[in-house]
Amino acid sequence: MSRSRKPTEKAVGTRVFNGVSYLILTGVCIISLFPIFYVVLGSFKSNMEFLTAAGKLMPKSFDPVNYINAWETANFARYSLNSVIVTLCAIAGAVLLTSMAGYVFARGDFPGKKMIMGMFLGAMFLATGAITIYPIFSLAKGLHLNTSLWGLIVIYIFTIDVSQVYLVMGYVKGLPKELDEAARIDGCSFFQTFLRVILPLCKPILATVALLTFKTVWNDYLKPMVFTLSNENMKTLTVGVVSLKSSGGGAGAYDIMLAGTAISLIPMILFYCFTSRFFVSGITAGAVKG
Amino acid sequence: MKKKSLWRRIRENKSAYLMLLPVMIGFVALTLYPNLWVISLSFFKYDGITTPDFIGLENYIRMFTRDPGWWKAVGNTFIFAIGKLVVEMPLALFFAVLLNRKIKGTGLFRGILFLPNITSTAVMSVVFALLFSAYNGYFNSMLLKLDILERPVDWLGTMPAAMIVCILVSTWQSIGINTILFLAGLQGIPQDVYESADLDGAVGIKRFVYITMPLLARMVQVILMLAIIGSMQIFDLMKVLTGGGPSGATEVMMTKIYSYFFPSSYAASVVSQVGYGSALGVVASLIIGVVTVIYLIMSRKMDDIA
Lengths: 290, 306
Known about the structure:
The structure holds two protein chains of two kinds. Chain A is mainly alpha-helical.
């Protein structure tokens, strides 16, 4: 008797528990997505709607006028172009530099290798961010790099994420060493082996590096803010959106601000929709290794 | 003899060094140099324009004896970091346990939960500032409409609401990554451990406490450390969402330091105090370093006990 009852009780229990799990997870997903929906829906509202009907999510109509205004009169065309240029250059730089460094650390055998690797590891404990932005900015100023986007670009290219170097290194170590030896026998030098044999095989991990760099640079705020303090035309999307908030214009800029926010968020989110699996695995791997 | 062979090995590996050169340039110019610069400038009085003036330990003396504002920012950083840990970690573990069950659609849930992580903190702070705004913010309007509030609450202009909002917004953004890290830890636990636990009669909460938690300990240590360091370096969120306000109540170490380097943003002082900002930067790095080391020692001790 009890034997036959127990499994069904368990099954009912599991079903209830599953139902509750779904309920909680759905709630959490709504919370996760809500601010994004708020931005997208709000970007179609007029300023008047913002002031008089703040509690309503739905706009009266889906008129793209805010986007046109943001794009044409509020300089968001320029901000977008800047963000795209800076991000693309940073991705190219990161892929090139981290792949070379990762390969050299994985396959090279040269005096000083341990010391250099140790230095890189130690660098993770050194100060960054708001603490070191001032000397970095004055260095760029000294090289006359602060008056164009180039300063920002050069700095992004040379800012190495050590955890990404380690990701690539781990990946190269996983490739069979016979490949290198075969290439060497065929007359490839150390560098040629990298270029012709290892680099093409590293595509998956370099895609991860590119995604992580895309996320970091596209979303970055501190560096582009400091570099564009006195140059409106060099602002990236992130800085452009935030400067609308702080300049405020009183209550005058909600419509443009939300359209600008949507312009800065949507490319990232669209990209994420198609590559979320790589994003998630890359970021978690980078976090744990780092 | 030995020296010669070393020299030869260096020469033979010329291409390896050349390939490392760009990364080394980046390391020296953007990590090593700025750090040494900040350390050395912390002994100077420097406004960013005139020549720096060597003043010895004066900046440090000022910091330790007559700058309550800085120590308040340090305190706020700890309040934020601990508050976020307390809110976020149990929730993230709970969500991970839910996602680890064999139910349909976990991939989609995971993807959505992670989505806030790929958005810009600065941009989302603008959005949350709108949502929590006192007079035409969405939350106030909703709560007033539903008669939960009688009058609008100034979420970002009063304490402790402002700090709580900062913690919640930050949790909103980073809970996805921690959930996924916990989930990776849970999935790393071999299934046969649970099977033998089942035979021994360990089920439900008991199973979680005695089997899952100890096996998850390593992962928890890593997650906690990343979370602590990340919270202590917080900048974008406070800078944009609250600007450090109300009256310095959400000012953290990094925003305070920034305001000495670039004072035009909001008035900590009118002229740049680069030397003093550098001294604060050195102490902030030391604080973060000490917290990390204490944490590492503590978690190692816990390992010995377990």
